[in-house]
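Our consortium's second objective concerns turning raw sequence data into structural hypotheses that experimental partners can test. To show how far this objective has progressed, the report includes one record in full. It was chosen at random from the queue rather than selected for favorable results. The single chain below, 114 residues long, was entered without modification.
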Amino acid sequence: QVQLAESGGGLVQPGGSLRLSCTTSGIFFRIYAMGWYRQAPGKARELVATISNSRSTNYADSVKGRFTISRDNTKKTVFLEMNSLKPEDTAVYYCNANSTRTYWGQGTQVTVTS
């Protein structure tokens, strides 16, 4: 059974930081491209960042220079380090695993507010 479990979300003030984690099971993690997406209320789900199985990365323009995606193949986990958070970063953040099949986590809420 494939599971993607996100953690690390929460409430933070503008300018603050959070680190999201997504721990996986049931997939051969090292061959999967991993990604983080987010969905704000009333908006479509959007790409935040991806990291390939060769560790090349891609970021949405809105988070470049503030967010960093990384992966630990030994722990089968992908991370999203989020700094200089803004209220517009408020959303549910979803982990994504993509290879011949695509899997999603259940999401973790990030709320940025003063």
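The partners drew two points from this record. The CA atoms of residues 11 and 111 lie 5 Å apart. The longest strand covers residues 18-25. Both points have been shared with the crystallography group to help prioritize constructs.
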